[in-house]
Amino acid sequence: MPLFQDYRQGLVLLICYLLSACSSLSSSPRATGDLGLIIERASGKVQLIDTSSAKSYATIGNLGDLSHASVVYSRDQRYAYIFARDGGLSKVDLLTEKLIRRVVHSGNSIGGAISQDGKLIAVSNYEPGGVKVFRSDTLALVADIPATYFHDSRTDKTKSSKVVGLVDAPGNRFVFSLFDTDEIWILDFSQPTIENPYQLTKFTHVGRAPYDALITPDGRHYIAGLFGEDGMAMLDLWHPEQGVRRILPDYGRGGEKLPVYKMPHLEGWAVAGDLAFVPAIGQHQVLVVNTRTWKLQSKIDVYGQPVFVMARPDGRQVWVNFAFPDNGKVQVIDVDTLQIAKTLAPGPAVLHMEFTPRGESVWVSVRDANKVAVYDTRRLEQTASLAAASPSGIFFTSRAHQIGL
Amino acid sequence: MPLFQDYRQGLVLLICYLLSACSSLSSSPRATGDLGLIIERASGKVQLIDTSSAKSYATIGNLGDLSHASVVYSRDQRYAYIFARDGGLSKVDLLTEKLIRRVVHSGNSIGGAISQDGKLIAVSNYEPGGVKVFRSDTLALVADIPATYFHDSRTDKTKSSKVVGLVDAPGNRFVFSLFDTDEIWILDFSQPTIENPYQLTKFTHVGRAPYDALITPDGRHYIAGLFGEDGMAMLDLWHPEQGVRRILPDYGRGGEKLPVYKMPHLEGWAVAGDLAFVPAIGQHQVLVVNTRTWKLQSKIDVYGQPVFVMARPDGRQVWVNFAFPDNGKVQVIDVDTLQIAKTLAPGPAVLHMEFTPRGESVWVSVRDANKVAVYDTRRLEQTASLAAASPSGIFFTSRAHQIGL
Q1: pTM
Q2: Which of A291, B90, B139, B220 could bridge B102 with an S-S bond, Cβ 3.0-4.6 Å?
Q3: Is the CB of B15 less than 8 angstroms away from the CB of A15?
Q4: Chain B closest CA to A282's CA: distance in Å?
């Protein structure tokens, strides 16, 4: 009875398949509060990690050019939206460990943000310059907002301005800067109508060539760095009617005592209590700014030209990494005394740092050692290390709950 | 062939069972970033809810006396630890929707906290007074710390002080107050040794009868309210060597112009920028305190005696509910102008409010209407309502990522 034999074999195979499928599913439902990902820039992959065990649990590839990639998370912390340099936007599922969707929306993108309600993803583009907004569930295009056109004297052509420094703000707003046309725009999705899904408010002549920006942790102050002149442009989002004003008039490359190896990341600004800790440009210094007056309060000498200047979540420490050739070191500033508490040597090419949400640990990507080092922030000692191929950005799911991240 | 018939039927049943088990498991793995729970105090149950859909997805019972219950979350946001008034500590799994374990550790408890690293749960007890510390994974007892003994003149017996105002602080520390013996203690688990799993630091004569306390969102300042005299006791955890100092000397029932219907919850203190918003005791006022000087800056007249005074996560609004007989109203203070933006009437007996992590919504429990009302915080309008039996506290999983919550 060969047929009966086959039929029984088929049944056994089906049962085995179902049993294994069930056991893999039921073995460990995973919570998402302690997850995150590490960008492996060279290979176009991300590692999914768990900060409770300090281990990687999956790798997802085919994500395009991940140099300077950044990440935001859905409000349930299940999905990561990865903004790649090649204009690709990828949606990754941290639970099924799969790439769900990928759209390529421009030729050259620089960053993105997720709206306060979690329903919209905005991406800023270099080339062609503008902002595109997608539904977070399907990645369907919702709005395509070209930047201001200008005459590019180098190419003698008309083109749209590069868009930089895109952040989310309370009230389902996005705020961004136009590099070529010296503008800051507010894109407001809080009161959509059939005719107008959004309102656009434009501030012009904000200062020459805003190149990056940040929003304070409370979502109130948007601050853009200027490439074309010294000083910074600040917009108080509680009072947009007051317009953009200039702060820190000496901030920039003005003196230019040293060559600037790398323009610092403004997203890295640390705000701790009344103080903002700001990377000086081209100097071996961190600047301390009083956030009540937005005036310079003091300067802290550090090991090299600072790139990221990040506050531990409780504001007691500020961690600093540096541009080449000093990028093998990290310094920890004690906020209470404004002194260096310790100089660490994680290894060659420290590119990024990410604190666990309550600040007991910090994860440090060390590109040329192909590792991510985990430090205990109280003892200032390494507690774990993960292998990673040329790691750059590290992004934890706790960002889902923070304004402007 | 009756046997063969049975064998085939058995196989079919097994396959059907496996298929249904698989489909129920695989249908929707659940992320935990947008979850929370609502305490149903009368029935000893909690509703598990999802803030993205504004819906309840499960109910768990047999949790004991849940009046004044409070909740903390594991760092992966999967487990809720529920502190019940009857001295019970319950561990609930938000993914499998089950009560995992319940220990009854004292006759009368008032609250608890989870350590920065997520490994320890501390519970403060009224009767007998003290603090017990449990492992968060197994709920096994780690430390049992009796409070200071004193002579109770009413009963002419020696007993241990009630413990109140227990919070977690950075560095795996817990801080709490001793009501009967006027003390504040720091319980430090950051440097465990075989001989001493913890260090205990005691501050005495802090002020008469601390009845409740709070820690500022940055985890730096611990502030206890005093039942036995006016003023508050403050400990700067960056400088414990400076000891406890007194602030707000007029804070209390001093004038006693009105009967005090309910001592306000200090956990409800809102800190927004440089300002703390504090419920006045027995007055129809919210006090505005400057957190740089810890001095009273101004007073805001409100509808009734404030109970919870809570800041929207971006600090732009402060929401206030009131003691009986004004507990059907909620007022929203605009922090920029210090004016009342709107008075809302959610219904009879508003007991608690909880903001979504990025502040677009607030959930309000309305006990005597047997509902939880969800408000859009920008439009100040109700957007959803959930049925709940005598709801009191509402706790979202985003608390897992915050210091002192």
Answers
A1: 0.92
A2: B90
A3: yes
A4: 31
